[in-house]
Every structure is written in structure tokens, then in C-alpha cells.
Design goal:
Ig-like_fold, signal, T9SS_type_B, 51 strands, PKD_dom_sf, PKD domain-containing protein, mainly beta, 5-stranded antiparallel sheet
Length: 682
């Protein structure tokens, strides 16, 4: 029987990892998280001290490049870049900065910033960009002096988000002010300075009252695009009008009204081919009484989460906090607004804070002055099964969360892995795609142009590659509410070749069903290549693991009969296993019919080869020429030495006279007849 296994000496799993540009977070007061291992790990080496806005960027392997609060830029060594101060964002801006790569240039990154002013918001300096060149400062990067703080808009809100464009060769960067969205496209040609503008409700008025810290409340709150790039959500912390502050001169009263009268939560369609924002859908409005700040989409794209604060105006404090809620909306529902579910509520003030999806597919919630982050542990599940846990993730000692968490290009958060293995030619390779999203369809291209089965729409296909080599495998995935493409490289190795299956070997029993086998000739039978190694093993497991090979330079004694041995033929990456049997048989005995018991070591006893311990039930009888039995023995008595142990005159110490004697050997085995003959005693 032949056994055939093809594998890799050391299994090398090939997979397409989720993009790791968002794997490093720095936020709050020297707080950080590292997701590069797939598990969130708190870090305390960051230098940011920021109340709200922050952004971080890593390379696609998860190595930190730099991070910023919109004003200061720190490199991967956690030092300020030489030209990394004075950016025109503000750490008190909800989304003070977002970092976007320059397509086609691995060294260049845009930092987009939005300013704020807690005194009079209209005094902020607007929307700018700066360019970081990672080839500067010894490879740790610096801001290009001539490309620093380039103004794009004179005034905008505290909102920023970004997404890949429809063709996947660029990005859209979005910001908002009053009732207008501005979408700027970045391609390999650079930043298009002419934005796509979309006028959609609601109109968020910039209050013109001279009372400080009133108009800023309406500018607060996040915007987020979903990973597919076709939905946009906006959280407006408040939506007041200038008229509401008419006649109010008390600063505390004015600020209380600005903070506590409710805001807006809106969902839009976004066209990532054109940059157009359309179809405003109010999920909650000012009439519902909640203020909105943090928003995020679940990893599978089905659910939208929003953080809501309920407050009452006060004449003694800025506001009276009633409760905070985490809201969930089902984007597949016919009426999305009506699908609202409150998945968590508490009265632990304060509640306002960012919601941000991590690469571990959990959504983190920042709450001010906490040494923990709260977590939505199962955001892909509906209702309270989403499992919001207050203060579930501990930060490092001394670190604190404030309001903000870092924001990213939302397409960096797509989470999907192609699982497969580098393997040997001839093996059918299984492919699976792991994602938290509900996959609606998938199109596989195995990159094997010589195969008639190069394309598959199976969810988990198998493919036999047409030849050894390296192949780029692509999966185009459509989920319920997102689409994305992942690729991997699969190496198909040259197989190990067994020239011929070795023949079974049979030897005569040398006693106790054993024999000594010469296995040294097996190598030449199975292998003619100098680039392959042959080993022989007693078990299939040993051959598979390549352990405990038999030393073929020595005779091998079998341990059973028949016994299967396993031959492993291997090259650098692959091996093949075949098998053969060794067998011990009971051969005809050979009688040596001369006995010379003179103690010279030659024929001192009656020799019958192939008898003792082979036919262990045998009996031998010795007779004189006259038919008198003078000796009897079996498997467990010494061989006849010319003395007698039977008869009237037997004497075990005195040898019998020279002459011809006769023997009978009974085998006592089914189908074997006794044999008889003579033996000459001299």
C-alpha cells in the first residue's frame, strides 16, 4: 500500500492581513494602544497631551510612522519632528487632523487640519494641509517647509474624515461647514485643490453672539464614512440659532443653552466616484433633546453607533447632566431611523467622547479623565448583544483618556484575511476568506492563467495550480454594506519525486518471527536525484514529522511480521511518502547430517537450520539403526550432542558409538508433515 502526502517542511501560512496603517493609537494624556499583533495592548510611550483631536499613521506592516494633535507632530521615536510644530490645527478640535498617504509615493503623507477657537469660533483659521516627507530627518520624516499650513478653506467645522475613492487609486478627504460638505480628492497626481461641494441639510448656524464659548458647541462632533464609502454620518453636538441668545448677557446662561438644547444626527449617501454627498436622512434631531459627538460603523458595516448626551440648561453650572446613551442603527432596515436601539445607558458623568473601531473589531469609547476606555465588544451583533462595557480596557499607569481618539482613512479599517498555505505542486489548495462582515458574494482570481479553472465564485474554493511558481491570488468581496479587494501571493513548490515504489521484502525466519533486513538499497530504488533526501521510518507519523529515521547502514530487525515501513523522499520544501512491507516467512529447514562432537566448535551438535525458534512446537527424535529411540528433544532443549536421553542404557554423559543414526522431525504446524533422514555420528 502506498501512502502519499505532500506538504511543506515548515508550514508557511500565506494570508492577506487587514491593513495595519491604523494599528497604532496615540491620544489623551500619553495614552496609546498597539493593535499590530491583532490584540489591543495598552502602551505608554506616546507624547501627546490632547483634549480631543489626534491622528496616527503606521506603515502597512503596523510600524509607527508619526502622530499629531493637529499642532505638534511626533515621529516614530516619539520626538518632535524638526519642523513639526505650529500646524494650524488645535488639540481642542474634535478632529484636529487626519493623515492621508500620497498615492504612488511611499514617502509622502498629507496632514489635514481643522482649527477651533473656544473663545469665538469665527476667529479660527480654517482648513489647511501640510506634507510630511518620510525620507527627511534620517528616515524618520519631517514636514516639507514649502508645503506647510497651506490653506484650503477659510472656515470649517471641527469635522474631518477620509476614504478610498471608487477606483482604489486615491482618497477623498471630507470636511463640513454649515450646510456644505467639501470633498477633496488625492491621487498620484497630488491633491485636487478644487473640492466637490454638496449642499445638504441640516444648516448648522455659526452663532454671531459676542458671548464667548457659545458658537463652538455647534461645530463639535465627528463625521465618519463607512468602509464601503457609500454612507456618511454626521454628529452635531448642538444646533442653535443666533436669535436664541438675544438679550442674554450672562455667560453661564448662554453657554448652558448652547450645550444643552440638543443637536443633530444625520445619515447621508456618499458617492466615492464623484465625491457627492446626498440624501440627508435625520436619525435624530434637536427636538429629541440629545447632543451627539462620537459616531462609528461596525466592522461588518451593518450597524451604525452614535454616542448621545442628554442635558438640561442650568443657571448655576454649564449644564445638568441627565444620562448618556450608546445608540445602534441597523443600516439594512427599511426605516433606518426607526431601527434605533439603545444598547447602553448610564449616568456616570461625563459621557461625551469619541467612538473608534479598532483592528480587533471592537469599538472603543473615550470618556474624560478615565484611566480606561469603555468598549463595545461585539459591534457586529444587534441590540444589547453588542455588549458595551464601561471602563473595559485599562490604559497604562498614568495615562488618561479625554474626549478624542485618533481618526483614520476609514478604508484602513476594512478587516479581511485570505487564508491559504504555500504548498507543493499537485496538491489541491483550499482558500477561505475570514471577515466579520456578512459576505454576499466573492470572486476569486487565482492568477493561474494557464488553468481553465482560474476563476471561482465559491465562498471557500479549492484550486490545483497548473505548475510550480508564485501566484497572486485576488478576492473581490461584496458584503452586505461594503466591498473590498484583498490579494496574497501563494508559492507552489517543486514536488518531491519518488521514482518507484519499493518492492516488499521477504526473508526466512531467523527465530521468533524476526530476520535481519538490509534496507540500504531502498534509496537507489526510490530516488535518483541529488537534490532529494531519503529516509525510512517505522511509522507514518515519524515519516511525516521527519523524526527517528532507521539507520540503514546496519541490519534492521523487524518488530512484527508483516511490518510496514515508510519511505520519505524530500527536497527543500516538499516531501512525498510511500511505503513497503517487510515480511518473515517460515522457510524449509536444512539438516546437516554429520555430527562430530569433539568440542572443536564444528558440528559438535546436530544442526537443523531454520528450525529452532521458528517452528517452536517441533520435536526431534533420534533412533538407532535398529529402531530404538535413544534421544528426544524440542525447541527448549539443547541440540543432540551424540549422547542418549532415552532407552534402557541411556547416559547423558557418555557419547554413543560411531555409526549411522536416524532422525524424525515433527513440526507440529498445520499442513506440515514430519521429515526423516539419517545423521552420521563420528
Amino acid at each position: 500500500m502506498r501512502y502519499f502526502l505532500v506538504s511543506i517542511l515548515i508550514l508557511s501560512f500565506a494570508f492577506a492581513k487587514a491593513q495595519l496603517e491604523s494599528s497604532q493609537w496615540y491620544f489623551g494624556v500619553t495614552a496609546g494602544i498597539d493593535f499590530s499583533s491583532g490584540t489591543a495592548t495598552a502602551t505608554g510611550i506616546g507624547q501627546l497631551v490632547t483634549g480631543e483631536g489626534c491622528a496616527t499613521i503606521s506603515d502597512d506592516l503596523g510600524n509607527l510612522l508619526f502622530y499629531t494633535d493637529g499642532s505638534l507632530v511626533f515621529d516614530s521615536t516619539h520626538n518632535l519632528m524638526p519642523n513639526g510644530t505650529g500646524l494650524l490645527g488645535d488639540s481642542s478640535s474634535t478632529s484636529s487632523a487626519i493623515i492621508v498617504p500620497q498615492p504612488g509615493n511611499d514617502d509622502l503623507y498629507y496632514i489635514f487640519t481643522v482649527d477651533t477657537s473656544d473663545q469665538q469660533y469665527r476667529m479660527n483659521v480654517g482648513f489647511h494641509y501640510s506634507i510630511v516627507d518620510m525620507s527627511l530627518n534620517g528616515g524618520t520624516g519631517d514636514i516639507v517647509s514649502s508645503q506647510k499650513n497651506i490653506n484650503l478653506l477659510p472656515l470649517t467645522s471641527e469635522k474631518l474624515t477620509a476614504i478610498s475613492n471608487a477606483t482604489g487609486d486615491g482618497f477623498w478627504v471630507l470636511t463640513q461647514f454649515e450646510d456644505t460638505y467639501y470633498a477633496y480628492e488625492i491621487t498620484a497626481a497630488g491633491l485636487n485643490l478644487a473640492p466637490v461641494t454638496s449642499v445638504v441639510g441640516p444648516f448648522i448656524e455659526l452663532i454671531s453672539t459676542p458671548i464667548t464659548n457659545v458658537d463652538v458647541a455647534a461645530m463639535r462632533g465627528y463625521i465618519k464614512l463607512n468602509a464601503r464609502g457609500d454612507k456618511l454620518v454626521a454628529a452635531h453636538f448642538s444646533n442653535n440659532t443666533t436669535a436664541e441668545f438675544s438679550g442674554i448677557t450672562n455667560v453661564l446662561e448662554a453657554r448652558s443653552l448652547a450645550y444643552a438644547q440638543g443637536g443633530e444626527l444625520y445619515l447621508y449617501d456618499f458617492n466615492n466616484a464623484t465625491g457627492v454627498v446626498s440624501n440627508p436622512q435625520p436619525l435624530m434631531t434637536r427636538a429629541d433633546g440629545a447632543s451627539f459627538y462620537g459616531v462609528e460603523f461596525s466592522g461588518n458595516g451593518r450597524y451604525l453607533y452614535a454616542e448621545a448626551d442628554y442635558m438640561l440648561p442650568s443657571t448655576t453650572i454649564i449644564y445638568e447632566f441627565l444620562r448618556g446613551e450608546i445608540l445602534q442603527y441597523d443600516l439594512t432596515a427599511a426605516n433606518i431611523a426607526a431601527s434605533k436601539a439603545v444598547v447602553h445607558t448610564d449616568m456616570i458623568a461625563p459621557f461625551r467622547g469619541a467612538l473608534q473601531l479598532g483592528l480587533d473589531n471592537r469599538i472603543y469609547h473615550s470618556r474624560i479623565n478615565e484611566s480606561f476606555l469603555s468598549v463595545i465588544n461585539n459591534p457586529d451583533d444587534g441590540g444589547t448583544a453588542s455588549n458595551y462595557i464601561y471602563n473595559d480596557f485599562a490604559l497604562t499607569n498614568g495615562a488618561q483618556a479625554i474626549y478624542g481618539l485618533p481618526i483614520f482613512v476609514q478604508s484602513f479599517l476594512l478587516n479581511g484575511d485570505i487564508n491559504a498555505v504555500d504548498h507543493c505542486f499537485g496538491e489541491s489548495q483550499a482558500f477561505t476568506f475570514n471577515t466579520s462582515a456578512q459576505v454576499e458574494s466573492i470572486l476569486w482570481d487565482f492568477g493561474d492563467i494557464n488553468s481553465s479553472n482560474n476563476i471561482s465564485m465559491d465562498l471557500n474554493p479549492s484550486h490545483i495550480f497548473s505548475a510550480p511558481g508564485t501566484y497572486t491570488v485576488t478576492a473581490n468581496v461584496e458584503t452586505l454594506v461594503s466591498s473590498f479587494t484583498e490579494t496574497i501571493e501563494i508559492t507552489v513548490f517543486e514536488p518531491a519525486i519518488i521514482d518507484a515504489v519499493p518492492m516488499d521484502i521477504e526473508l526466512c525466519d531467523e527465530g521468533f518471527d524476526t530476520a535481519n533486513f538490509d534496507l540500504s538499497l531502498i534509496e537507489n530504488q526510490v530516488n535518483s536525484s541529488l537534490n532529494q533526501v531519503v529516509s525510512i521510518h517505522e511509522t507514518l507519523e515519524q515519516a511525516t514529522l521527519n523524526i527517528d529515521p532507521i539507520n540503514t547502514n546496519l541490519p534492521y530487525q523487524n518488530i512484527s511480521s508483516p511490518q510496514t515501513l515508510y519511505v520519505r523522499v524530500s527536497n527543500t520544501n516538499c516531501y512525498d511518502i510511500t511505503s513497503f512491507n517487510i515480511n518473515v516467512e517460515n522457510c524449509p529447514v536444512k539438516v546437516f547430517n554429520v555430527l562430530t562432537p569433539d568440542d572443536d566448535g564444528i558440528n559438535d551438535t546436530f544442526i537443523v537450520s531454520g528450525l529452532r525458534d521458528v517452528y517452536d512446537k517441533h520435536k526431534i527424535f533420534i533412533f538407532t539403526r535398529y529402531g530404538m529411540k535413544i534421544w528426544e528433544g524440542d525447541n527448549y532443549t539443547p541440540s543432540w550432542d551424540g549422547t542418549s536421553n532415552r532407552g534402557l542404557a541411556h547416559n547423558s554423559s557418555k557419547r554413543l558409538p560411531t555409526g549411522t543414526y536416524f532422525y524424525i522431525i515433527e513440526f507440529n504446524e498445520p499442513g506440515l508433515k514430519p521429515i526423516a533422514g539419517y545423521v552420521y555420528l563420528n
